[in-house]
Amino acid sequence: MKTTALLLIGLLALQGVSADYLSAWDMDEGIRTRQNGYYNHFKHGDSTADVQLTREARRGPGGRAMQVVYNKPMDGYCGVWAHFFDEEQAKDGVLTCLDVAGYPYLSFFVRGAKGGENFTIQLADPAWYAREDSQAAGTAVRYLGRPLTTNWTEIIVPLEDFRLASTDICGITFNFTEEGAGTVYIDDIGFKKLPDTPVPFSTATPENATPDRAINRAMWVWETEPLLDDPQEAADLFAFCRAHQVNELFLQLLYTYENDGSPDVRCIIRKPDLLRAFLRAAHEDGLRIHALDGHPEYVLRENHPKVLAQVDALLAFNEGDIAQEQLDGIHLDNEPYLLPGFESVLQEDILRQYLELNAAIMARLREQGSAMVFGVDIPFWFDERPGECLVTWNGQRKDAAKHILDIVDNIGIMDYRNFAGGADGMIKHAEQELAYAAQVNTPVYLGVETYQDTPLPFYFVCMIPEAEWAAFARDHADLMNRRDFRGFRMKTYRDGTLRYWGIGQDRPGAPSDRFLTAVAALAALNPTDWQEVDWRPALEQALRIDPACVGFQPLNISLGGEHPINGFTTAMRMPPKTTFAGKSKQALEAALKETADHYRDNPAFHGFAIHYYKTYRELPDE
To answer: By the 8 A CB rule, do 215 and 209 touch?
Structure first.
């Protein structure tokens, strides 16, 4: 009865103030403001901010509110911004901001999780937006006249306090500049003609709109042997799956090759009897099991026979009469972009070979009438980088993600962000793939990461001007099509004008003699004299803003050769925003819930895949 009354009040209020209240963002649907603008968190220095749209702490009976969890130590600042213009038009140079002429008061509602929280309120007009900044009016406490409480309270700020040159408002920023940590909730941002103009409650559905259909949850498992050898290890895995709603496993296949390198290569599955016993127990526990494997080099045509031999071995393994002892699918985590040649003129050819492999696997499974489904993992950016990852295949030219969705039974998008919403979150990065997947009826898992690597120094000793990079890559195609050089991981790095090529140490600490010998061999391929190019300013600037790089040290080492080896070192890591490592299972669940809520009506949204069992298990509960 009380809920019905509140909804009625909200509807009446909405009808009575439509001309006096201009809503900018009520947070009720999607991940954009009413003007089709994005929002996102920001942080500087040691400060952090995590933002999500939640139904758990909203204003009124329906809709959502924005939750901001902030930690502002002495250093830095953090917060959240939202744009009040159409992002798609802005890409074409058209910036049409929200015109608030006649609405001289900013209004929004706020409450604290504990009370006493505070932040600065900032707006941007076109001039401020062009400077990538916004103008402050004051703090929430200033306009409330008291500290925040745990009750929803409206804050009203006269626009004249922002001292803007225009009534076109491009965006709003809530900036946490005072030392402290906490959580605030914000809802119903808009502009009013008069301070006492009422703001309607949301008319969105009051229920927690989680999907009615089943949401699958898969998990990568790389350490297979202990699970086959020790029944208790398997029992612990099954118990973990039950506790965390996991119903599918991508299980690393144990195998060896016979006649490797010849056309008659054969794949032999190791410990087949133990694998059958594991499958029987897993199926009894309600789990579906997909054989997992992957290497970047496997995408190359010369290695396709090895992968197809693996498929043949799996088909033979599944020929038994006992369904409970059969595999449910094949899942390949080949990552072609880890080959140095992917970041070169060789990219399209690598992608075409990748598509050929996937199509050949699907053809093999269909020829044999197999019930196994075939899926692959792809990065979210296969369809996001303008002008890149395009490939002509079967007479059609489109991005790699669409081609793959046309070919396979399912995909896992490595949607590696540790937050759901915003301009750089899980929801945004999966939009285009899920839209196309719905057209072609291909199920999609959204993958999240729980692993954090150890930063390892990379020694970059080859420098190539961008204008010469294509020719250099062609001349060294044999090396570009390998992930490793003499057993060490290769990487390329670019700063806009120069391309750098190097290898990384295999372990922390001082470099081994074997590693330094490999560095010297790679340096022998360097076409450019480091002493004759002013390379440091642009490179140091690029490294400074790159979250994947830690530190910089110029190289000038002698290994007994005629000339010293020049270049630089930097430690490389996974950017922190790509993984839930360091966060809690609760934070992971909140992001999955927000994402599932958003995609509840997309028929291609199949569920989530979590990478991976060992590190997922190690996340703290809170």
So the answer is: no
Residues 23 and 576: their CA atoms lie apart, in Å, by: 35
Render the burial of 547-558: b for 16+ CB within 10 Å, e for the rest.
eebeeeeebebe
The reply to whether 216-452+580-618 shares the fold of 29-192 is no
- For residues 428 and 87, give the distance between their C-alpha atoms in angstroms, rounded to a whole number: 13
Query: Who's near 595: CB < 8 A, 6+ residues apart?
Result: 420, 426, 427, 430, 446, 608
Residue 314: which residues within 8 A CB-CB, separation 6 or more? Answer: 253, 269, 291, 327, 330, 372
Could you state, in order of their start, the residue ranges of all structural domains in the chain? 29-192, 216-452+580-618, 456-572
Q: What is the pTM of this model?
A: 0.91
pLDDT classification of 558: cutoffs 50, 70, 90: confident
**Residue 248 contacts residue 216 (beta carbons within 8 Å):** yes
Give phi and psi for 416, each to the nearest 5: -80, 90
Q: Assign a CATH topology to domain 216-452+580-618.
A: TIM Barrel (3.20.20)
pLDDT tens figures, 166-203: 999 999 999 999 999 999 999 999 999 999 999 998 87
pLDDT beyond 80 at 308: yes
- What is the DSSP-derived secondary structure letter of residue 76? -
CATH of the structural domain 29-192, one choice from 2.30.30.40, 2.60.120.430, 3.40.50.300, 1.10.10.10: 2.60.120.430
